Amino acid sequence: MRPSGRKTDQMRKVSFERNFSKHAEGSCLVKFGDTHVLCTASVEEKPPAWLRNTGKGWVTAEYGMLPRATGDRMKREAAAGKQGGRTQEIQRLIGRSLRAVVDLKELGERQITLDCDVIQADGGTRTASITGAWIALYDCLKWMEGRNMLKVERVLKDHVAAISCGIFANQSVLDLDYLEDSSAETDANFVMTGAGGIVEIQGTAEGAPFTDEEFASLMALAKGGIAELVAMQKQAIAE
């Protein structure tokens, strides 16, 4: 039995609240159970310096956790004068994941920045960030389309979503919360497109190495979970 009482293939309750931020071109408050992340999308009418005069745009991301997103207060990274390695790794993952479904040529010489700020953490902050950031990006592109800046269907090629899986208490489970993540024998994050393409897989054995069969079981759980998330994204943007 999982600590939450969920079935092995059952995700936490997932919700998307679009247009959460008054000022951002696109925004979404995403909740994976008790993990809550505010994702905002901001557009700039110029690309990074290294992309100027190429006709291409760029999509990037920044990630952070509020001091009381966790049980004990964390110091702000700004106070330390630099970002931690975990923060840099996660924001690069978010950026790669969103770029995988964007036609940068069709975006034109612009940059869209996805800011993912964790309000409350209970495991899976990076997967929630990626999944919610897609909706913020979609709404940002719709905002641009409404101003005759581009066509969404030409820029955004597919959905992208992410989910965690792991081996907890000798069984493969979907969407780990903190209790499971902190004591899992194996944990992995899967990022996939709506069409089923693999963007990235991050998997780690915390104890004994995992087998091909165990990895296959995690992959099967991830595919099912991401299919559910993509269906939820489609429903959210149709509302």
From TrEMBL:
GO molecular function, one term: tRNA binding
Broadest EC class assigned to this enzyme: transferase
Residues that coordinate or bind phosphate: R86, G124, T125, R126
Swiss-Prot/TrEMBL keywords: Nucleotidyltransferase, RNA-binding, rRNA processing, Transferase, tRNA processing, tRNA-binding
Enzyme Commission no: 2.7.7.56
PROSITE patterns in UniProt: RIBONUCLEASE_PH (PS01277)
The Exoribonuclease phosphorolytic domain, residue ranges: 10-140, 160-223
Gene Ontology BP annotations: rRNA 3'-end processing; rRNA catabolic process; tRNA processing
Gene3D superfamilies with a match to the protein in the record: GHMP Kinase, N-terminal domain
Reaction catalysed by this enzyme: tRNA(n+1) + phosphate = tRNA(n) + a ribonucleoside 5'-diphosphate
Family that this chain belongs to: Belongs to the RNase PH family.
Assembly description: Homohexameric ring arranged as a trimer of dimers.
NCBIfam families: RNasePH
Function of the protein: Phosphorolytic 3'-5' exoribonuclease that plays an important role in tRNA 3'-end maturation. Removes nucleotide residues following the 3'-CCA terminus of tRNAs; can also add nucleotides to the ends of RNA molecules by using nucleoside diphosphates as substrates, but this may not be physiologically important. Probably plays a role in initiation of 16S rRNA degradation (leading to ribosome degradation) during starvation.
Protein name: Ribonuclease PH
Source organism of the structure: Rhizobium mesoamericanum STM3625
